[in-house]
Amino acid sequence: MKRSLQGKLRQAPNSLKQRAAGYLPGSPLKTAKGMLQEGKEALSLKKILNNHKVSVVNEGQLERTYWGPGYHFLNTLEINGSVTVAKIPLNVMFMHQDYLNPSFSYRNVFRTNFDKEAFLNNYRKQLKDKLDVDKIVPKDKSLQAAKKAAEKAVRSELDGMMQEYASEFREPLAAFDSIKDLSTGNIGNVFQSLVSQQYVSKIREKEQQLQQLSTEAQSGKITERSQAIPGLKKEIAIYTKLLAFYQRYQALKKKLDLVGLENRLNEEGIARMQQFDNMLDDPSSLQQLAGQHLQQTGLEKFFMHVEQMNAGQHSVSLSPLSLYNYLNNGLSMEISKDNKYFFLLAGKEKDLNSLYDRSNFTALNQNDHIGMGVRMGRGSIKENHTHLSVFSFRQSKVMGAAQNFDMPKKNTLVLGLSNRFTIGETSTVEMELSKSSAVYTQAEYGNDTAGRRKSAIAQMMNTEDFGRSLAMVLNYAGSFEEAGLTVGANYTHVASAYTNPGSAFMMGGSKDAGLQVKKTFLKNKIQLQARGNLREYAYAMLPGRKWQNFSSLFETRFRFGKGQQASLKYQPIQSFRKIPGGKITTNSTNRLTAELSFQQRIRQSYYRNVVSTAYNASRYLLTDSLANLKSVTLSSLQNISIGKQLVYWNVTYTYAHNPGGPAYLNSVLNTDAGITYMLGGKISATTGLNYSSAQNWYRQVGGRQTISANINSRMQVSLFVDFRQNIQQFDAYYDDLVRADWSFRYNF
Questions:
Q1: Residue 583 confidence (pLDDT)
Q2: Are 488 and 476 in contact (CB under 8 A)?
Q3: Taking the mean position of all CA atoms in its chain, how far away is CA 598?
Q4: What's 140-163 look like in SS3?
Q5: In terms of Cα–Cα distance, which of 628, 546, 552, 553 is closest to 587?
Q6: Domains of the chain: which residue ranges?
Q7: What is the CA radius of gyration of the chain?
Q8: pLDDT, position 443
Q9: Residue 450: is it exposed, middle or buried by C-beta count within 10 angstroms (0-12/13-18/19+)?
Q10: What are phi and psi of 205, to 5 degrees?
Q11: Is 31 helix (H, G, I), strand (E, B) or coil?
Q12: Which of 334, 481, 500, 652 is the most buried (most CB within 10 A)?
């Protein structure tokens, strides 16, 4: 096939060669070059972009700020596209953000990533067009032998019928010669066409005519019509013979079980096709088939093993103690081959501290740094594996946000060992151990005891206080379907000196332990669930000062079918502050919730409602005393669909008994009602009204409006506006009364 295609291209005129060169998958510039060389089509931006997937999205947001007066405006322009470079499909994104308040600022973000699914789909399409399923997935030999035997018997019977017909009526019966597929449906259709209902009706008429002529001939009345008797007898005899043939075929069909054999052949064909599709869906077998039957460049063979590749600003998550929600502006690549795994990272994180953290912002905790490292081992991350990781983070000496001090140079080295394995077929265990070392390389931030500047590697090997820079994660998950039981457990320990810029939310000096159990009865109609969690973390550099939090959940859920269910939940929570010589309760909460969810069909309409009642008893630490709060919350979230319209009405009311407590713990009412509807065939909208009140704070009314429009197959527009007005205001508070979001998307 390849040689014939190359030959055709060699023999083609130059204009055809230019078209082939210009329109093979490539970059937009290559496509444009092909158009210019051909010179027969006008070059336009639309024609260039139509060969590639490009979308332009503009989103805006208007709302009030939390840290200053007035409203702020955030505008985002995002351009997404897909290009193919050297047969490697890539997704490209460019984002520009403008932020106004109180001064103008902007940010540009660029990212490109390898589109693995498009890469594999291209090979799947080529292989489906080129490969013969029968050669890749061989047919069942015994079934094929039975098919050949049945075909031979049927063909012999049909040939005998044709010979018998020809010898008796002196003319051929060509109908059976047209049968190439000896399926029961094929042969049955031929017989039905031969002995059709219309043909039977004509034979019945001829039988009556023959009987009438025979009666006339027996009475001695000979007419010219009597000459038709031999012909009528022959036509009737032919019909009788064909009917006998059909009956003989039916007997043979039953004897050979042709229907069952044909069904088995069809099922086997479907199974083979499914097996072929499964081979194409499996990356490993797809890689093998592509290597055997397609010509690949060295770059293509390499990318067959690349699971993901990202360049520019992107987020990376591998595991909690290596990289987790790490914002990298650089390159990351994940490769898997023959059950061997390799991950590479090189880039820089450049981010501002949260505005809420600016009061605590110092030179020692800024975020800018250069990160690089590898993770390697056996097995992929989501499967059973054993991985070793090494990541280095270097904080450069750069100016701070206030532009009045230098950042110290800081080196952080993180080593990790991760292991995932299964117990039986239902349980999975994940373990991860990590050690870090972080040193400031400048003398003014401290030297070692010998007066030498510290290094991260030397600190890593230091056996003094070895455990102070360790972290460990242990997770277990088990599912036992026959017993209707699901069990989960987790434990995390992070020593006080452990630091990992690649997992910024892993707090030093913290512990976290949890247990979850879920049991189902009566085919999942009754569900019992219990879980508990203990968290502890240090809140100061001084020893013996920690926060502790205990939380748990006990839930019983009943399912009644057709979407109806009820549940009862009990949630106790306690928080403490530990100090040397004592423990202070900062919060104690007990919450009991009963919930009922049901739906009902009313002719062509559906009614749904979720009703819940919650009792809450809490104690909060205020200065040197505990404030008691008892509250009851009633809520109803209901809607009814009528044709293409959806009408909803939600009500939530909390009654708080709060004698002598703070003003913000009081009774609140919130209710909103609205309708979702269509405006023509391309515009959907939702209109709602809202009333809310907070005792001793405010009473207000407002509305919400949402509009989404598919203007055409390429353009979509959406708008959301939330506006409120205070009817009465009792005290000053943060009043975000107007919010607007909009989006505009155009696909080339």
A1: 85
A2: yes
A3: 28
A4: CHHHHHHHHHHHHHHHHHHHHHHH
A5: 628
A6: 1-51, 116-304, 306-353+365-467, 522-581, 593-748
A7: 39
A8: 52
A9: exposed
A10: -65, -40
A11: helix
A12: 500
CB 289 within 8 A of CB 127: yes
Q: H helices of 107-196, where?
A: 116-130, 133-136, 141-169, 184-194
CB of 349 closer than 8 Å to CB of 330? no
CA neighbor of 475 nearest in space, from 343, 297, 320, 705? 320
CB atoms within 10 A of CB 369: 21
| Residues 53-104 pLDDT 10s | 789 999 998 887 655 567 778 889 999 999 888 889 999 999 998 876 555 5
201's CB contacts (< 8 A; 6+ apart) are none
How many other C-beta atoms lie within 10 A of the C-beta of residue 198?
A: 7
| Helical H segments across 282-371, by residue range | 283-293, 298-303
- The total of other beta-carbon atoms located within 10 Å of residue 59's CB is 17
pLDDT beneath 70, residues of the chain = 1-52, 65-69, 100-105, 220-225, 350-367, 396-408, 441-454, 463, 540-542, 623, 659-664, 734
Whole-angstrom distance, CA of residue 110 vs CA of residue 92: 8
The C-alpha atoms of residue 402 and residue 192 are separated, in whole angstroms, by 92
Position 445 scores a pLDDT of 53
Identity of the amino acid at 660:
G
- 706 Cβ contact list (under 8 Å, min separation 6): 685, 686, 718, 719, 720, 721
Tell me the CA distances in angstroms from 598 to 524, 560, 561, 609, one per residue in order. 17, 9, 9, 6
Q: DSSP secondary structure string, 522-591?
A: TTTTEEEEEEEEEEEEE-SSSTT-EEEEEEEEEEEEEEEETTEEEEEEEEEEEEEEEETTEEEEEEEEEE
Count Cβ atoms within 10 A of the Cβ of residue 57 and give its class: 0-12 exposed, 13-18 middle, 19 or more buried: middle
DSSP state letters, 636-669: EEEEEEETTEEEEEEEEEEEEE-TT--TTSS-EE
CB neighbours (10 Å) of residue 55? 16
Question: What pLDDT, on a 0 to 100 scale, did the predictor assign at position 65?
Answer: 62
Residues forming a β-bridge with 726 = 700
**Residue 69 and residue 102: Cα distance in Å, rounded?**
9
Helix (H, G, I), strand (E, B) or coil at 481: coil
Strands 698-710, 369-378: pairing is unpaired
CB 534 within 8 A of CB 511: yes
The pTM score is 0.75
CA–CA gap between residue 730 and residue 711 (Å, rounded): 46
**Nearest partner of 550 among 498, 518, 594, 586, judged by Cα:** 586
How far is the C-alpha of 467 from the C-alpha of 454, rounded, in Å? 19
